Amino acid sequence: MSFVDEAQSDVPLLSEKHSGIPDFLLEKARKAKVGVFETRTKAKTSRNRLPVIPQGIEEQAFFAALDELSKELGAENIERNDKPLRDGWYMEHPNTHDMMTVLDEEEFVPSAMVYPSSTEEVQKIVLWANKYEVPIAPISMGRNLGYGGAAPRLRGAVLVDLGKRMNKILDINPDDYTCLVEPGVSFFALYEAIKAKGYDHMWIDVPDVGGGSVIGNTVDRGVGYTPYGDHWACHSGLEVVLPTGEVIRTGMGALPGNNTWQTFPYGFGPYSDGIFSQSNFGIVTKMGMTLMPNPGGYESFMYAFQKEEDLEQVIEIVRPLRISNILENVAQLRHVTQTLAVRGKPRTDFYKGDGVIPQNVVHEIASTLPIGDHTWVYYGMSYGPPHIRKYKLDIIDAEFKKVPGARRIDPSTLPPDEYFWARDRIAAGIPELQELSWVNWMPNGAHIAFSPVSPIRGTDAKKLYDLAKQRHDEFGIDLFPAFCVGLREMHLIVELVYDRANPKQRKDVLDCLRHLVDDAAACGYGEYRTHLVLMDQVASTYNWNDNALMKFHETLKDALDPKGIMAPGRCGIWPKKYRNRGWEMTKDSGESSEGNGVAPPS
């Protein structure tokens, strides 16, 4: 497909494709696509590509092995990754590479893509990989944007794309408020299925953008914005294909004939689910999820705070309110620069100079917007019948008004396309698409996240904000910070937006991130999730007691995956045959993702 055809083609619907958009978001998706392609320059050119072969296997032997697998799965269910790379956009994303790459786009690429239709076919792929010692990398849908998308950590691994043919909702239980899904079920699809059945008494919890896989988001410990926002905490029961091909079911699923797999997550004996999140110890083919009861009403609210230095006081107010559940959902405190960027306009519409956009320019523009001028804006939601909401909202208002100049924004003054309404829908379990509008801030817009965890304390918020601001100023990158407050911890999510066709911007962003990871670790803050390129560095910061945790992970890896075929390097966990051969990417290792071969078969 040419660049022009790609830009002009319509957005696929959920009724047409497992990764499509629901009808109610189609017009918004069309507008979003126009915004993306209006600033796109990178995709107008392509380059000649050579075959990608994983290290440790000869090219002829590799292609012969692929031919054997095609006879098992059908030739139509295997693709070689030998065509020009097309970035697409969120709703039409590639599985050939990271569409938001921070390195050369040929670094994190698979050699081929395979499409199983069942757990049994996943087993066949795993057994085939063991037979020929071919590395494989499973994805659910590949929309983990900002963290590597669909790309494998190991260049040349065979991508196991589960979502294309394993996308069934296997059960929705309206009495227990649970569901059972396959990897290709998006939040869009689950929401639509619940609505189609008329189950208005149940909600799902959704992340910022609803097109991702429920399983993929959950096993990567992603979050949403209702009281059920900790997705991993809300799952119950996994079916997993182990790296040697065996299939297990966790929790009550291990009991034949059980009737509580999705209602009681633990079963009997050691709780094993945790080793299958953010790991490379197995392929999750089914997962149970708990659903939220309709709370009987809801009301979004928003407060604007004028000064940068208000941050500490606001966070100190938030902590007791959040722990006591007066603030009921994952709280978001966002910076004014994001208020500008989320409007989906390029940075050049506001400022054409080099370096960080000046704050006086930001505030001057913010003063013309519906919210008015501010430095911080808090998005929240209150749940329950009107009298319950009023009780909680009065407490929240009294506390936030202790900050001089704090303003509660009247939603009735906001236009329908104001970002507030997207946050309103997300916090009510209605999937959205608007969040990634700020990626249009740069041409060929891409983003990558810095995501440290801290206590909910004003001093910690200020320390992390100052640290991020200092490094962003140093590298000339606009700062997009958002504090997301869980029940007893707080994530600072900083999205670094860059032009992925600009090598200097890519390098500046990566250098900035590498400094931020080390700076944060030196202050006791660790990342909760990270991009492929940073996984080794982030894993190395969790090094208490002479790297005891990584040694434990490696012991598990060697026991469960003796041939080292399952997603080598994911989350910094390398099989034995890759260790000490230069595969780890650190601040000093440059931009190559590959090491120096693998140990020969034993």
What does this structure look like?
29% of the residues lie in helices and 16% in strands. By secondary structure, it is α+β, with helices and mostly antiparallel strands. The strands form 4 sheets. Strands 12, 13, 14, 15, 16, 17, 18, 19 and 20 form a 9-stranded antiparallel sheet that branches. It has a 5-stranded antiparallel sheet with strand order 5-6-10-8-9. A 4-stranded mixed sheet has the order 1-2-4-3, covered by helices on one side. A hairpin with a 4-residue loop joins β5 and β6. The radius of gyration is 24 Å and the shape is globular.
Q: Which structural class best describes the helix and strand composition? A: alpha+beta
H/I helix tally: 15
Largest sheet: 9 strands, antiparallel
Envelope shape: globular
Mean pLDDT: 96
Low-confidence stretches: none
Summary tags:
nine-stranded antiparallel beta sheet; 15 helices; 29% helix; five-stranded antiparallel beta sheet; 602 residues
Gist?
With 602 residues, the protein is α+β, with helices and mostly antiparallel strands. The chain contains 15 helices and 20 strands. Strands 12, 13, 14, 15, 16, 17, 18, 19 and 20 form a 9-stranded antiparallel β-sheet that branches. It has a 5-stranded antiparallel β-sheet with strand order 5-6-10-8-9. Strands 1-2-4-3 form a 4-stranded mixed β-sheet, covered by helices on one side.
Q: Which helices and strands, and how do they pair?
A:
Layout: H1 3-8, H2 26-38, H3 59-73, E1 78-80, E2 112-114, H4 119-132, E3 136-139, E4 158-161, E5 169-173, E6 178-181, H5 187-196, E7 202-203, H6 214-219, E8 235-241, E9 247-249, E10 283-290, E11 292-293, E12 298-305, H7 311-323, E13 331-335, H8 336-341, H9 359-366, E14 376-383, H10 386-400, E15 407-408, H11 419-427, E16 445-450, E17 452-454, H12 458-475, E18 481-485, E19 490-499, H13 503-522, E20 526-527, H14 535-541, H15 544-560
Parallel strand pairs: 2-4, 3-4
Antiparallel strand pairs: 1-2, 5-6, 6-10, 7-11, 8-9, 8-10, 12-14, 12-15, 13-14, 13-18, 16-19, 17-19, 17-20, 18-19
